[in-house]
Write a structure and sequence with these properties.
This protein has 321 residues and is mostly helical. The chain is built from 20 helices and no strands. Helix content is 47%, strand content 0%. It is elongated and about 70 Å long.
Length: 321
């Protein structure tokens, strides 16, 4: 019977009276199935809010379906959910930017369309993770220069990833991670004692700067042979590289790099060509043909990995207001 009710909850022709009966059932799975329907009407949204389920209310608010005045005052996480649902007024934004919970501030820093003063507040947060999240495209350019001198490499890396970072700023980060030398990195930015060596963090800052499209090609010469394949792959996809750079990128062992390098043919991969199954593929007898095994140069986990998540989908737990 429950499967039937779930099927009804998905039915786009569900009558209003039956919609209300399903909401009144209080069954969480049925409630979320109703909330996932396309084109919910305002009366349907209000009916779902009457269920009093915090996770359901969170979903509706973060989906932008509930105007600010209609968000229940007692709803936990009211401010943050309204910010992430783009329905918060400026005053609510400012309160969310000063939430005592650093994770809440970090989520707020990821949100779009924040008022300039709220972004400025988050960019000066004592928690480097919050500051790094605040490095949005809307960050004022003068703040980017200030953050490039932040003690933590986590923040400097976010600056290097910012699409509005100036070439001069990127050049400084690319050279040595920026000046003055960082005193914190991702491993110690929340600990009392600093690491003895921040070299890995500085390396990530330099590679992030090198991957920025605003960096002139000549600035990449020292990193073309970097062992980090993901970084070199970014270089290889650029269409403004000189021929000698392309030739160097055509020789590394990573087939990912060679595959994206422009104007550079993909050389035969030894691990594929030397496979004992290749002769079977060329065999004239269909009965002798077989499907080749996956190439060892490109593991399935790297070839088929996808990132499928819904941005802003709430966790089914209460939030601090």
């Amino acid at each position: 019977m429950r499967d039937v009710l779930l099927g009804l909850a998905e039915n786009p022709a569900l009558p209003a009276g039956l919609f209300a009966r399903l909401v009144a059932s209080g069954d969480e799975e049925i409630l979320f199935t109703l909330a996932d329907r396309e084109r919910l009407t305002p009366p349907q949204v209000r009916a779902l809010l009457t269920a009093g389920n915090p996770s359901l209310t969170c979903l509706l608010v973060r989906s932008g379906l509930v105007p600010w005045p209609e968000i229940p005052q007692e709803h936990p996480g009211r401010l943050l959910d309204a910010v992430l649902g783009w329905v918060a007024p400026a005053a609510a934004w400012r309160k969310a930017a000063t939430d005592p919970d650093p994770e809440a501030r970090q989520e707020a820093a990821h949100a779009l369309d924040a008022p300039a003063d709220a972004i400025a507040s988050l960019a000066r947060d004592p928690d480097p993770a919050v500051v790094a999240a605040a490095g949005s495209p809307h960050l004022p350019p003068e703040l980017l220069h200030d953050l490039a001198r932040h003690p933590s490499t986590v923040v400097r890396q976010a600056v290097a990833d910012n699409e509005n970072a100036a070439p001069s700023l990127l050049a400084a980060l690319l050279a040595d991670g920026g000046w003055p030398a960082p005193t914190r990195c991702g491993a110690c930015h929340r600990r009392e004692a600093a690491c003895a060596d921040h070299t890995p963090g500085i390396r990530r800052v330099r590679l992030a700067a090198a991957s920025h499209p605003a960096v002139p090609p000549e600035g990449l010469a020292a990193d073309l042979d970097a062992p980090e394949a993901w970084t070199v792959t970014t270089f290889a996809a650029r269409t403004d590289l000189p021929t000698d750079f392309l030739n160097r990128l055509a020789t590394p062992p990573s087939c990912d790099v060679r595959a994206v390098s422009p104007r550079t043919p993909l050389p035969p991969n030894p691990c594929c060509v030397d496979s004992p199954q290749i002769p079977l593929l060329r065999s004239a007898e269909p009965s002798q043909r077989t499907r080749p095994s996956r190439s060892t140069c490109s593991p399935p986990s790297r070839c088929s990995r996808t990132a499928a998540w819904r941005t802003g989908t709430p966790r089914r737990v209460g939030h601090r207001a």
